[in-house]
Design goal:
heterodimer; A: 6-stranded mixed β-sheet; B: alpha+beta
Chain lengths: ~250, ~290
């Protein structure tokens, strides 16, 4: 990708119809009970189709940031727009619909152990009210794509870490999300499997999905040369554009 | 391979408890409702037929012939009374039969100093009171004992009314306990499956989707429980109905189900399933709204 930084975050929040930014945070803070700020005055914006790493040490706020962007965590102050919407102003049902446009991959996979691989992957389609036949067909196709076509009826506890991660990715992308968030996707799998997982993300990125990956894997960040947002103690410590663009403040 | 039944939320201790509680609730509610119907019917019968029966006992004297003459005199005098519909002497053999539960069957009626018993039935709209009957009888037989059925029937009606209140209260209690159990089990299930619910939210599930998943699981087990609970109650009530065929329903409330009663009772399991589902849905919706 060409390396063009997006414009700084405008004072006015972008028009929802304008695809200038997929995610826009303006002085966003998140405070947990006890008053300690997990995120403090974070400001940045992501362009459509960008690929961004979020880095930082343990407790830097990476997971909190992804949860905020994924609408899993309310902000304490500031302004947030995701896919052109201010989540706070949306009714619950529409907020849920907005979440379906965001794919999330969790570090601990968060698969439902009593459901088969196929059922786990097809869950977002079930939420969309898609019929059984179409659900099975799409989930099977996607599981073939991530190399798990032979494990459709397996239960998650019988899978290796890398396989679980691929199931989690398939589940995250089956609804064709515009934004894909991944929290330490290579954190609990070995390097070789980790690279295969990253290649999956790159493939999705090439299809136009905006990808945000939180990682503490410096080796990965250095090798792939994507823009990086570095967090420290809840603050944006630095932003590097590298060669793929898509990140601005 | 047998295909598993799809459930978003895994079966848990709480969801295994609810069906058995519902079996018990539906069973108790059906029995209570059956009891209520029987009591209602008996009370309605008693109220429809105003008690107009009076029994007169004429204690025996030394000479049976004199006793018979005095009884004839009372009969004649009361037959002339305009408020009296019928009056007859209860045959001595019948009096003996009435005493059989206490004395057994191997006694001779003539060997006992039994009173002569007169059965009087007043006209429905009669202004003649039991006191008038007693006064007339005692002018002929001074120590005549007059038993007004209305008095003890009123006590019985009063008692059965309290019985009805007790049964209705039990029914209400069963409903309240069922509702509270559904409420706390839903809260428990949501706590047990908190991570799954959070995950579903993050994947974009609407509150409605999650509520429907919880309600579907609760509803399926509630239907099975309702059928089982009603089935057990049906067996018991059918048995009691069969056993009650020899009893006089006009005298005591008897658990004897009629066709219309079964139709009413068949609503009970459906009502309980609906109630459980409603409580589950409302509790889950309320809880989900407190989540981000």
């Amino acid at each position: 990708m060409s390396g063009n930084l997006t414009e700084p975050l405008p004072d006015t929040v972008p028009d929802p119809a304008t695809p200038a930014t997929v995610v826009a945070l303006d002085r966003v803070s998140v405070a947990y009970q006890g008053g300690e700020a997990a995120l403090d005055q974070v400001t940045f914006a992501l362009s459509p189709g960008s690929f961004t790493f979020v880095t930082g040490g343990s407790g830097a706020g990476k997971t909190t940031l992804l949860n905020v962007i994924g609408l899993a965590l309310p902000i304490s102050s500031g302004q947030l727009r995701v896919l052109g919407h201010d989540p706070k102003s949306l009714p619950r049902a529409e907020r849920a619909a907005l979440r379906r446009r965001i794919g999330m991959v969790f570090q601990d996979f968060r698969l439902l152990d009593h459901l088969s691989v196929l059922e786990n992957v097809a869950l977002p389609l079930r939420m969309d009210g898609i019929g059984d036949g179409k659900r099975r067909a799409q989930a099977s196709e996607l599981l073939e794509w991530v190399g798990l076509g032979d494990r459709l009826n397996s239960l998650p506890p019988t899978l290796s870490g890398g396989q679980k991660q691929r199931v989690a990715i398939a589940r995250a992308v089956i609804g064709r999300p515009q934004l894909l968030l991944a929290d330490e996707p290579t954190g609990s799998i070995d390097d070789e499997i980790g690279m295969r997982v990253i290649r999956l993300f790159q493939a999705l990125h090439h299809e136009g999905t905006t990808v945000v990956i939180a990682t503490h894997n410096h080796h990965l960040v250095r090798n792939l040369q994507y823009p990086t947002l570095h967090l420290a103690h809840g603050h944006v410590h630095s932003i590097s554009a590298d060669n793929s663009g898509g990140l601005g403040n | 391979m047998r295909r598993r039944h799809f459930q978003i939320f895994q079966s848990d201790a709480a969801s295994r408890y609810l069906p058995w509680l519902l079996v018990l609730s539906v069973f108790l509610a059906t029995i209570a409702a059956g009891g209520l119907l029987a009591v209602e019917r008996t009370l309605a019968q008693w109220r429809a037929t105003a008690p107009t029966i009076i029994t007169i006992q004429l204690p025996p004297g030394d000479d049976p012939k004199v006793d018979e003459d005095r009884a004839d005199a009372v009969l004649r005098r009361l037959r002339a009374e305009p408020g009296v519909a019928t009056i007859e002497q209860v045959p001595r053999d019948r009096v003996g039969q009435l005493l059989e539960p206490w004395l057994g069957s191997d006694f001779r009626v003539s060997s006992l100093p039994l009173p002569l018993v007169l059965h009087v039935e007043l006209k429905q709209d009669s202004s003649t009171s039991a006191d008038t009957i007693a006064t007339i009888a005692r002018t002929i037989v001074a120590n005549a004992i007059v038993d007004n059925h209305k008095e003890w029937r009123e006590s019985l009606v009063n008692y059965v009314s309290w019985l009805r209140f007790g049964i209705a209260s039990s029914l209400v209690l069963v409903i309240v306990v069922t509702g509270l159990t559904a409420l706390f089990l839903t809260l428990s299930r949501m706590a047990i499956h908190h991570h799954a619910i959070t995950l579903l939210h993050q994947l974009g599930a609407s509150d409605r989707f999650i509520v429907r998943a919880l309600v579907r699981q609760a509803g399926i087990s509630a239907i099975a429980s309702g059928i089982l609970g009603f089935g057990l109650a049906f067996v018991l009530l059918a048995g009691l109905t069969a056993a009650s065929l020899q009893l006089d329903e006009a005298f005591l409330p008897v658990l004897r189900m009629q066709t219309a009663d079964w139709l009413w009772l068949s609503i009970v399991p459906f009502a309980f399933v609906g109630f459980t589902v409603l409580v589950t849905a409302r509790t889950a919706t309320h809880q989900l709204r407190r989540m981000p």
